[in-house]
Amino acid sequence: MKEKIEALRKEIEQLNYLYYVLSKPEVSDYEFDMKLKELERLEAEHPEFFDANSPTQRIGSDVNRTFTQVEHQYPMLSLANTYSAGEVQDFFERTRRALNEDFELVCELKYDGVSISLIYEDGILQQAITRGDGERGDDVTANVRTIKSIPLKLYGNDFPKQFEIRGEVLMPWKVFDELNHERAEQEEQLFANPRNAASGTLKLQNPAIVSQRSLDSYLYYLLGESLPADGHFENLAKAREWGFKISNAMCKCRTLQEVFNFIEYWDEERKNLPVATDGIVLKVNSSRQQLNLGWTAKSPRWAIAYKFKAEQAETRLNSVDFQVGRTGTVTPVANLEPTLLSGTTVKRASLHNADIINALDIHIGDMCFVEKGGEIIPKITGVNRKARFLPGEKVKFVENCPACGTKLQRSAGEATWFCPNHYRCKPQIKGRIEHFVSRKAMYINIGEETVNQFYNIGFVHNAADLYSVKPSDILCLERWGQKSVDNFIESINLSKSVSYERVIFALGIPEVGETIAKRLANTFHDIDSLMNATFEQLISVGDVGTVIAQSVLDFFAEKSNRKIVERLKSYGLQLSLDQAVLAERTDTLKGQIFVISGTFFKHSRDEYKAMIEKNGGKNTGSVSSKTDYILAGDNMGPAKLGKAKSLGIKIINEDDFLKIVDLSTADFKDDNLLF
Ligand code: IVH
Fold it and tell me: Of 96, 247, 630, 631, which sits with the fewest C-beta atoms within 10 Å of its C-beta?
């Protein structure tokens, strides 16, 4: 049986390699899934043959902890950037003078992701570390193990016993677009670019979610004492044989002209790649010559990056829309003559805010420059004045709300204008209902279109109305059948068991996000005490400052909001803290203020935070004379430590803390988390 399991593991790893590294799948997804299922079954029947490197383990377990910091054996340096052909020529000539002998340059693509260092011993992935500050990074091994193009076990037997390989973890454009689409539907904040999305994903505490995000990798730098060859290019060719994903977009050059040809070709061709690139990297091929040239404090002298110019297009401004968001913020959006930019057609672009519109002095009909930078929405970066013949109307920021006509306001020191007519301005009302039903709030199974439909027909004017909609009324609407009506009613009923803290978040009180909602729920155990809280009571809640406190007061001062809350109560929503959760609370740490710092091993930071609050204590971010305890893990920052010592604050470690709250490590796991 052992042999059978091992053969199946090998076969599945091989299929993974063909699919994820070579992009040449040999079997259908179905066939692959069947093989994986079979292996899962056999492994479950024979736990004695467990192997942490089995392909079934790539899905990721549910461990939840803060990352441990690890020192890099070789510091992770960056590259000197260049932006012009002249600078590339300078590098080439500088290198020739310094070496005073023939040399080869390797041209590669500069992948725009998150740098990672992988350590292998005896062909097995031991550790994956992020760049961090270059000297020490986070140990993200559990997450990296879920990336299918990163081999857990190498092929062949000619790899060094111990070596490091560095590269980039990337989120392919397609995955990025899907993820953002999903986040937009759930009204979650979008990732600005695939790099941020990959970085956010690698830092997730749950490898099972990382696994679903389909990250990819390209590796480009081998380090170690006994590498196969002197040449970087030759070493990477070997690494490719061992199973690493090494780009084929590489070439060895001897002349400057060959380098320019590579740059010119890829500046265009990179638009067809599945992942983001932002330049070209030039490296001296020979390790001996690299050593000769050496390093500065920040980067090697034997390599440089040439950065591609941000892509820009010139197109006509047709009109400007002013959009009103859920909290009343008004954003200017330019409608453009459609133009092609970085592979997609751009029709709309951000015009930032009123100050920038004025500074641009932009007129309708102007030819303007659009750029796709790191942001989600392309932005207007300038106006081509020479192309302005018959100037159209100058663009002016609206003074009144484009939806309801109310005079806009602007808070002191803020760049954005908002409509203060929160309770009668249509896009704000609809936006609040959309927020209420969203996944992180009540998770009611309807989207923007249905909210619009219900609102326009007059069924729903606020969140509470959703609970009085009759199935027979919706059944006769366009696009609704019995099945979708049943689904809707079921999800309305399910939402009645959504926790109190999420109901507070769902109300859409401006400034009250998920974390603040949790803090409020934890201090005000039912909605009546929250609605009647005073300013002083509110600002005494952790993380609640004067702006949030005032916003909560304003929200509940509005009669219509109180009425909605009363109705939600009558429909049976959770508007007080669960009794079981309440029963577990203690006063052990009552009034004690904690600062958590460093890396922990027995529980995650969030778990410790929850324990503190559950036992009546308070968490704060920075050390001050008010701090009672520092809960210190490994590698606590020296500045914090010094300050805490000088203020005479008690510093305790995780064991001391667990003794104080009298919890064994076993009985406090993530599912007990209040937060
Ligand atoms: S070599 C000491 N090669 O760009 C040189 N880096 O700005 C090690 N990068 O830290 C890096 N593609 O995160 C190298 N083909 C490539 C690269 C690459 C992307 C990243 C890497 C590096 C950063 C420097």
Answer: 96
